[in-house]
């Protein structure tokens, strides 16, 4: 679970997922209120996690399954990735560039 770069308190799974769903570049720490940003390492991992959703969908599309199967499979993979993502999430007090 991520740890606030300012107050060093560990965020819960729920707090981490909620901060990611806010679609903002920063999220306030629920304990100290300081703005926290996803680290560059986390954002790079996020790109890889997107591929972990797309690649299985591409592989499954090679077979002749119903559209309902594709939708359900995609949702299951998406929720697994979203459920596991807080475990690799790291925070930073400043916005880091990717390169």
From TrEMBL:
From the record, give the transmembrane residue ranges: 46-63, 69-89
Q: Which UniProt keywords apply?
A: Membrane, Transmembrane, Transmembrane helix
Write down the NCBIfam families for this protein, in alphabetical order.
cxxc_20_cxxc (TIGR04104)
* Protein name per UniProt: CXXC-20-CXXC protein
Give the top-rank taxon of the lineage listed in the UniProt record for this protein. Bacteria
Species annotation: Thalassobacillus devorans
């Amino acid at each position: 679970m991520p740890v606030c770069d300012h107050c060093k308190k560990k965020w819960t799974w729920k707090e981490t997922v909620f901060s990611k769903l806010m679609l903002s570049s920063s999220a306030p720490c629920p304990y100290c209120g300081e703005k926290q940003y996803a680290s560059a390492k986390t954002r790079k991992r996020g790109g890889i996690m997107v591929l972990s959703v797309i690649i299985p969908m591409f592989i499954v599309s090679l077979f002749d399954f119903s559209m309902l199967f594709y939708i359900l499979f995609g949702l299951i993979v998406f929720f697994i990735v979203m459920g596991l993502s807080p475990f690799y999430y790291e925070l930073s007090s400043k916005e880091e560039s990717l390169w």
